């Protein structure tokens, strides 16, 4: 898994990740990984947003390409609100099945909806949004974390929210994941985006 963090404070949203890739018990550390990124930038109708992906490594390239296709469409990519993010991922689900061969039945027995099999943390000019397997979308007013290191990251960000700016606080959360989660390791990569006026 991994540790992804995002922080919203003032007019800035920051998103950070650590850089370790794992394959069951095997580690692919940063200095031997040609593509250690877990966050990618995408152009939206409001400006640049950053998308962090946890879970299967295959999701990164699939979601990056699919969201870039949305971005270059006539309508553009809208990640400005909880409702807009939901609609984007609702439209994306059949594309994932048809063009990228997603197996939605791999979810838990008794799930009420097909699973998109990915968890995503978004830092956009509209704020912080988390998207989970069944396309449930949450918005966060201050901070959030995803991945196997998330409990440590949340604790660190909770303790220092009032003291640090968004970038350093998101970095601290990822560093807490690195310190305590066996599936997370450095270095930390952090990106910032300005909130849209009125957000």
Automatic annotation (TrEMBL):
InterPro entries found in the cross-reference section = Ntn_hydrolases_N
Question: What is the protein's given name?
Answer: MFS transporter
Q: Which organism is it from?
A: Rubricoccus marinus
